[in-house]
Amino acid sequence: MRKKFRSLIPDHEAIHTNRWLRPFRNTLLHPRLWHLNRHSAAGGIAVGLFCGLIPGPFQMLSAAIACVLWRVNLPLALITTLYSNPLTIVPLYVVAYAIGAVLAGNGADGFVHPPDIGDMNFIEWTHALVPWAMDLGKPLVIGLVVLAGGLALAGYFSVRAAWRVMLIRNWRARAAKRGG
């Protein structure tokens, strides 16, 4: 799987020669942004999970900035932000609101259900989601931060644990080959 993922990542030459990325070439060519190891993969997933709950089109931009600041895997972070999409954003925001309402002491009594798609087309419905989300206010903001942080921590430690399990399995397989 690691080899397949590496084949999907653009190489340094592609970034170096891309005219749109030329102003950011020195920043984007830092090796830790593209290297795939336990730390960079776990950090990239955590950044992507956290930034995936940022409203609007700023998810990937904020993930890229965070990756540059913390020097974690950029492609993994950008791909991971895609978990929040038009199909998943409403359930994620409902969960975030519930968490925020509990933490803010409001309870879940003040919840307003999201707009029903009914006679609206998909574009109209997504535009109706913005004022709905804005009306939810403080519990939503608190819940989004807590949910994003929780997802980021869970993602980070899950990747670290999975990487360790894979590493131990590979060590044992190599030891078995040498011994038998």
TrEMBL record:
InterPro entries: DUF2062 (IPR018639). Keywords: Membrane, Transmembrane, Transmembrane helix. The keyword Membrane applies. Residues 21-172 form the DUF2062 domain. The chain crosses the membrane at residues 41-70, 82-104, 140-159. This is DUF2062 domain-containing protein.
